[in-house]
Amino acid sequence: MKAILIAGALSLLVTLIGTRFAISVLVKQGYGQLIRDDGPTSHHTKRGTPTMGGLVVIIAVVIGYFTAKLATQTMPSASALLLLFLFVGLGAIGFLDDFIKVSKQRSLGLRSKAKLIGQTVIGLIFAWLAIGWEDDTGRTPITHFVSFTRDFDGWRMPTLLLVLWVLVLVAGASNGVNLTDGLDGLATGAAMMVFGAYVFINIWQSNQNCSFNPGMKCYEVRDPLDLAVVASALTGACFGFLWWNASPAKIFMGDTGSLSLGGAMAGFALMTRTELLLVIIGGLFVAITMSVILQVGWFKISGGKRIFRMAPLQHHFELLGWAEITIVVRFWIISGLCVATGLGIFYSEWVTGV
After folding, report:
1. What's the CA gap between 91 and 54, in Å, rounded?
2. Of 52, 126, 115, which is closest to residue 86 (Cα–Cα)?
3. N or C: which end of the chain has fewer CB within 10 A?
4. CA 231, CA 129: separation in Å to the nearest integer?
5. What DSSP assignment string belongs to 313-332?
6. Is the dihedral of CA 159, 161, 167, 170 positive or negative?
7. What values do phi and psi take at 146, rounded to 5?
8. Do the Cβ atoms of 22 and 5 come closer than 8 Å?
9. What's the helix, strand, coil split of the chain in %, to 5?
10. What angle do CA 283, 231, 53 make, to 5 degrees?
């Protein structure tokens, strides 16, 4: 528990202080955000705002986690190291995308195919290691089973299908956060809530783990307490970054932050056996992603008609005349309700055993 508190507090301080320094450096280098011409016209006032702030979040999480391990004199677990690999790896892809945008002075960075290839490579390495990295009892960080609040009995997937499932989750979650990151503080605040939920889930799974507390309701999850340390670091980092990212944003996280945070969500879902529960906990990200899928699909089917004035969903409400801060706060409320619902389902399954 001490490591959880240290990781969260230190990550918060690093982003709170470090982001201010990063803003100064990025402004001097001229690394400002480029704004797409087909977006809401109100966003053109944000042109030149420093981007790539997600780099500070990544550094804060890594510092927070490893400092907590040093302070408590405990070794990093396989699950935590794999999660950090997924988090940092996808962040590196996002950083490359952001760097191309600011260095080439264009609103589009990596081509979609190149970004997808990068996500696939990181996802494949993560899946390969997570499937085969056994502990002394033969448990691996992820299993071959589909899960909701725990693995479904009889839903065992062959290895090839499992790898594809991992890639779908990683790509879906990372792109979902990326699509949500369109208004000041929206993705950061919502992500903070999701990671806060995983702090609770991992602590609960540690207390009720089959290794220490065997029984009918115990959880077969590897390294849950160490995953809680990573979740705490992510929660604290998002919290500190939000100070500078809230409206009017002094810095954007960019793809560096959104891809890495989304990848971390997918990693938590896989390692805590809550893959389908993530759809509820991260309900805001799912809704925003679905708005894009529906918009594009209906546009092609109907011959040019649209469901929303603009996708992703948050821009639809902007074009309806809602103030940006109003959209962000109301979407945060929705995200909070999704997180509360997911946690309620998680806890009720343990209480009722259903």
Report:
1. 8
2. 126
3. C
4. 20
5. HHHHHHHTT--HHHHHHHHH
6. negative
7. -75, 145
8. no
9. 70, 5, 25
10. 80
Q: Which of 285, 290, 180, 198 is nearest to 236 (CA)?
A: 198
**What is the spatial distance between Cα 198 and Cα 229, in angstroms, rounded to a whole number?**
10
Identify the DSSP state of 46: G
State how far the Cα of 194 lies from the Cα of 5, in Å rounded to an integer.
Answer: 17
Q: Which of 239, 188, 300 is nearest to 14 (CA)?
A: 239
Give the type of residue at 84: L
- Distance from C-alpha of 119 to C-alpha of 117, rounded to nearest angstrom: 5
In the chain, beta strands by DSSP E: 145-147, 151-156
Query: Which amino acid does the sequence have at 32?
Result: G
Residue type, 194: V
Three-state secondary-structure class, residue 107: coil
What does the pLDDT profile of the chain (354 residues) look like in tens digits? 899 999 999 999 999 999 999 998 888 877 665 555 455 545 545 666 888 899 999 999 999 999 999 999 999 999 999 999 999 999 999 999 988 888 776 666 678 888 899 999 999 999 999 998 988 888 899 999 999 999 988 778 999 999 999 999 999 999 999 999 989 999 999 999 999 999 999 999 999 988 877 877 888 899 999 999 999 999 999 999 999 999 899 999 999 999 999 999 999 999 999 999 999 999 999 999 999 999 999 888 888 889 989 989 999 999 999 999 999 999 999 999 999 999 999 999 888 865
Give the DSSP letter of residue 209: B
130-167 CB burial, b ≥16 within 10 A, e <16: bbebeeeeebbbbbebbbbbbbeeeeeeeeeebbebbb
Q: Which of 180, 219, 224 is nearest to 314 (CA)?
A: 180
Structure token digits, residue 295: 């918009």
